[in-house]
Fold this sequence. Notes:
Shape of chain B: elongated
Strand order of the largest sheet of chain B: 5-11-10-9-6-7-8
Oligomer: heterodimer
Helix content of chain A: 55-70%
Structural class of chain A: mainly alpha
Shape of chain A: globular
CATH topology of chain A: Arc Repressor Mutant, subunit A
Strand content of chain A: 5-15%
Number of strands of chain B: 11
Amino acid sequence: MIxxxxxxxxxxxxxxRLGEDELYRVLAARPRxxxxxxxxxxxxxxxxxxxxxxxxxRAGQSSTMITPEEHERIRIELYxxxxxxxxxxxxxxxxxxxxxxxxxxxxxxxxxxxxQSIEAEAQLDL
Amino acid sequence: xxxxxxxxxGQSDTRFTIHAPAESDVPPWFKTxxxxxxxxxxxxxxxxxxxxxxxxxxxxxxxxxxxLEALLTPPIKRPPEDAMVSDGYRVLFEALDATVFTAxxxxxxxxxxxxxxDRAYRVGxxxxxxxxxxFSTFHSQLSVYRQLAADTALDIHLYAVADWDPPAIxxxxxxxxxxxxxxxYWLLAFDGGTEPTNACGLFSRETGESYTGYWTDDxxxxxxxxxxxxxxxxxxxxxxx
Lengths: 126, 241
């Protein structure tokens, strides 16, 4: 369970987002949930750091080596798909020139959801 | 005479980064590698501990810590043949081949030696050079080597201090290394015979109570050591027969 609470918007904003398809579309990708979980604790990160983290996740699932080719695919997807998508959704601020991503505000309910999804993942992989 | 081989091995542009929740999660044996090892703290809701490998600053591979430990526990287990086709494994073993690990006990040495002997046995031909320091140490391995010599076409060369008279065995040539300075090395070098990709070796040096050494698939290294042994021992008049 994530117990770091970022800025909490008003109740109306929370209710509104949870009712929007957009939220679930953004969260409907494991890499994006993992990125948010990372940024909830670290606040910000570089594309390099996030690529390494995602590679580490992949390594834990596959029990084989993550190759430079896979690493590059992860980086490309991160840079061109996941980070822009999270930025558009208002979850993060992505600076493609500086190669950094920073968490903006994330409602308490969504933080909880991400924490639960990571926990559930960990149980799935055992 | 083999000191230069050990010295060279220490230079490498490879770096390991261990990503784990706490620094105490870094396995103690990892810190004994001469390849630089860096620790990076993992956030709480992050992946399981893993190792990322860089060569000259570029990413070359990532593997879970659990899997890496399994790979490196003697007897050395290599992934199945089809997995070895993956660049990632080749890079990992290349990166690790140039590492030196300390504190090998006799049991571990024997376990890794057994792995090399098994490979030589399976290939069934080629040259296997072995140094067990003294012939009396070789005594405990006698039955293994009798079988190796009898069941295969291997050309076996045994280097040791002649503190015991080993029996004549067809296929095994004995070399007395007294006074050569080789006494502190425990070595095995197999050239792979008709299967050069099966070449492998264990090079270690006695340091106090234990051994410092490494195993390798590097054919260039193996050739160098074999050449050193051939020119300085085999071809010199002190060789026993």
